[in-house]
Amino acid sequence: MRKLLALLLTVMMILTMAPAAMAEAADPIVVTVFRGDPGDQPTEDNKIYKLIEEEFGITFEIEFLAGDLDETLGTKFAGEDYPDLFDAGNSAEKAIQAGALIDLLPYISEEKTPNLWNHIKDLLPQLVNENGELFIIPNYGINYNAQIQNACNGPAFFIQKQVLAWAGYPQIKTLNEYFDLIEKYIAANPTNANGAAYEGFAILCEDWRHFCLINPVQHLMGRPNDGEVIINVNSGNWETETFIDKPYAKAYYAKLNEVYNKGLINPDTFVMTYDQYIAKLSSGTVLGMFDQTWDFGTATAALETAGMYENTYIALPLVYDEEYGYGVIEEHYLNGAVPNKDRGFGISVNCEYPERMIDLFENLLSDKWQKILQWGIEGEDYYVENGRMLMTEEQYKNRQDAAWKMANTALTIWESAPKKQGTQDDGNAWAHSDQAENYFNLMSDYDKEFLTAYGYKKPADFFNAPIELAPYGEAWQIDKSPIQDDYDKYLLIQDQWLPKVIMSANQAELDANWDAFVAEITPYAQIYTEFMQAEVLKLVEQATK
Amino acid sequence: MMIGASRKTAQRPLSSGKKLFRKLWAQKYLMLMSVPVLLYVMLFNYYPLWGWRYAFQNLDLSTIKKGAAWIGWGNFEWLFKEKLFWLGFRNTLAMSLINLVFGTTSSVLLAILLNEVNTRAFKRTVQTVTYLPHFLSMVIVVGMAQNMFVTDGPVNGILMKLGIVDAPVWWLGEGRYFWWLVGIINVWKEVGWNSIIYISTMASIDPTLYEAASIDGAGRFQRILNVTLPGIKSTFVVLLIMNIGHLMEAGFEIQYLLGNKQVYDFSQTLDIFVLEFGIQNNKYGRAIAAGMFKSVVGIILLFGANFVAKRLDEETLL
Amino acid sequence: MTAVPQEKRKPKRRDIVFPLVNGFILCVLMFITLFPVLNTVAISFNDGIDAVRGGIGLWPRVFSAEAYRTLLSDKLTYNAFGISVARTVITTLLNIFFTSMLAFALSRKEYILRKFITLAVVLTMYVNAGLIPNFLLIHRTLKLSKSFWVYIIPTMFSCFNMIVIRTYIIGLPDALVESARIDGANDLRIFWQIIFPLCTPVLATVALFVAVGSWNQWFDTQLYNGSKKYLHTLQYLLKMKLATSMNTTNAANTSVDALVNSGATKSTPVTVRCAITVVSALPILIVYPFLQRYFVTGMVLGGVKG
């Protein structure tokens, strides 16, 4: 009797389990997500997430970064407390090092996941590590067909449009022209209409975002973004050198010092957190800064939502004036498309259903879903006319509204997920904002007038055309963990000394501070230079093989 | 207790294993009440000491899973060459010393002032008010300090009105102010609380001493000088020595919450060094070495202080 | 008391001047103590946009309860309040229970293990493994992170308080225990029915210490439960707000115009931070006056022995 019962039970168990295993793909699951950036939760009745839930049975529980990135990651590594989808932001190398992510290559193949395969197959040699493993599919920088560059999305000097408008739309090409204009503007308009004082120039120094402080010099010298080094791409030997300890860097910080002593820089800028920086930019009281466009997207959105278009920023490709003594410098801010290696979602070792995550990425990379993610629902968020995807003014406005986006887009997932950029096979742009018709026709009247005054169609017209991407890519992507300690020091010394240099009271103090800075950083700069030189050569060799 | 035990064995020279067992059995409830707590202490206070072995291993992010290798004194060698470590050490000592001096003098002063108050209700009110900040969390206190010390805050406002400074001072952004700011905030938070012990010591001073002093024609200040201060001397010395034993504890929260990159050279303490290297940079071995160094120096200071206290024939710590 | 001989003294001129000066100094001190607290309350009740312009004293300039409305419209606030209350109550009860139990056992002179356990426990006041070993213990060995119990389990016992309670128990008449033992009561009953109730004053003190410590804790949330927003405590919410609204110079530039223009809520990070400060300090401010008479005794007991 007992045996019979046991048998019966076993049979029943098999019967109940078998269909469960077969229907696994549709089982509703909750996927935990970590995003290594601060952000806002999507609304609960978000339209796109609802679609994803219906089709894939997946809902997301998203954790945004609150506080220090490395400390937050540190607690995750110690407890091996990993979300299913893990975007460790700017410290993603650490997640790989900690063994938190699974190798994705075994899940990706031409047959099983054609979309993903097509997405990365050409870049695979660049993306995999020495052991041939792939942990993260880049979140940005993989273009289909022609790359579209309407605006500079990377580093540049920024200035509020109203400043240029006030001065009669001058061409600002050099550092001195830029600061002269800001100075003149503040002298004429010390406060805005509400009586809040303008701040001439802001420098974000928080954590890894200190690139706003330490990166500009290479661009002033006419190079695209190689992080903390300048590489000679013309000699054929790829000589790599740090620039921050060179006299041509001192010129920039001396200029900032001059600007600081004129009261155009608030000392608070050196201790500002990222949130405070965004709040300040959103207030429209900061006239200029060096940054990268994506870094202050929320501030731009806030300004646009508030209709403060005159306070939004235009990117300018500044170089040193001839009088600095480095000749006439040709600017090269825009670079060829570079895949954002090691940035974006990885799947953690704690994830119980890696296949379904891959399946999700695979499906989201399909043309159908890419349109939903980047354009929305046809008829609701855009319409099609003569094969062109277009938007009404209202639809376009919605796309700039932060609150609307939380309810009607899957931005929070999309930002870290693999995505198609560039041009669709039918000639439409993948990103709604890249679509030529939308871009100019639907831009605010203010922006239209602004560009027209310059005789331009798009903000990128301020820039030279992108140059060809160097064979090593962009050097900032090189993983520095082998020299982590020295690299950390190298950065810390800059974080500590450069503000001091900028805040020097007079020329003598400035010289003393600069010399002390150079003396302290030189040994680390040497280590860093040697390391980067070797890595660059390795990458060049790899690319030319 | 030792005496009691030995006396008992002396009374019963024939005490055997059986007797011991009987005694243990009789005390089973006492054991029930104490052994679990002992085990708890073993787990939460002694077991982590076993983690000190990592101070001699290259434990970091990549080795924590695979297992770290022994590297001898490598972490310590690195530590003693590290500028940031010595900076942290300096800042820890500096802020402790400032706390010690400010904290002790301010609470003795407050106790003396309160001791001279004859109106009971007033004394009580002052005490109630000044004890209060002790119970507020450091997060709250730092938030309030932030409100007070921002450049356009009340502190600069008052200083400028009094003509002490003519432009707002950047209190929170300049390194050289940081130690003193921490000292002031700590005094604000703890002066009332720390004065309790002195007030109660003063209350136990024999009143006839004051009477005698008065008859000798001593004024109020002389009475304070000749009766009150000698009356609290022993308490003062004991507390001072105990505090010297805690010199490695400069507090962690206040520096962590109030510090920023601009004042980093002055705000970074050993605790923050450990946090940065251990949790943010995942160099567990090095961070544990730094923590171990701090603990060992702390233990030496504590036992040293205890030893001195004993030599001075005051009450001991244990 | 000290007042007796002073009354007998002949009143001199100095004796009128001194109390006045003394009283004045103490009043200034009280003002300095209370000002930041009242200032925070005032800012929390001020209009957010107006508050960022600074210069608020003891009274709101433009009254508004918007900061509290913002705070109380977020269900995470209630959740955090609940977690804070729960951790404080549970920790306090368990800590008092275990600590006083050990204190009783170690107060029994005849207890064989007394010396050993006392030494083992007291040594922990000297030897501390440090942050990282404890961090690894909680995260890796015990796997307590991401749970409510990480607030409770590591704080169930405190050595300093044990010494305070033990000193108090030793001060009780021995005859109490002896006569109970003759009546046949075992140690458990003696502790629970005789000693424990008699310890009420000292236990109240210790409970206050433990409760305040637990209520004010935020670092454990940051280290162990940062990723679990439903386990965040009030103090941790406040700490996060502090990090995002901390300025070293005037705050006047913060997003005021964006808020004005977008017609968004009229609370700003600064006023919300002050409102959380008030909410998280309120329970302590309410309970504190009632327990004041206890903790002075406790402090003296601990100070002498600790």
What can you see in these coordinates?
The complex is a heterotrimer of chains A (545), B (318) and C (306). By secondary structure, chain A is of the alpha/beta class. Chain A folds into 2 domains: 26-146 and 339-440, 3-Layer(aba) Sandwich (D-Maltodextrin-Binding Protein, domain 2); 155-333 and 456-544, D-Maltodextrin-Binding Protein, domain 2. Chain A has helices at 2-22, 47-56, 69-79, 92-97, 114-120, 124-127, 161-166, 175-188, 211-214, 216-220, 247-261, 274-283, 297-305, 354-364, 367-374, 393-398, 402-408, 411-414, 436-441, 445-454, 484-502, 507-544, and strands spanning 29-35, 58-64, 85-87, 143-144, 155-160, 199-202, 229-231, 240-242, 286-292, 313-316, 346-347, 383-385, 388-390, 421-422. In chain A, helix 21 packs antiparallel against helix 22. Residues 17-24 of chain A have low confidence and may be disordered. With 318 residues, chain B is mainly α. In chain B, helix 6 (83-115) packs parallel to helix 10 (175-203) and helix 15 packs antiparallel against helix 16 (284-311). The model of chain B is unreliable at 1-10 and 314-318 (pLDDT under 50). Chain C is an all-alpha fold and 306 residues long. Chain C has one domain (66-306): MetI-like fold (Orthogonal Bundle). In chain C, helix 4 crosses helix 15, helix 5 (75-107) crosses helix 10 (187-198) and helix 8 packs across helix 15. Chain C is globular and about 70 Å long. Chains A and B meet through helix 3 and helix 21 of A and helix 15 of B.
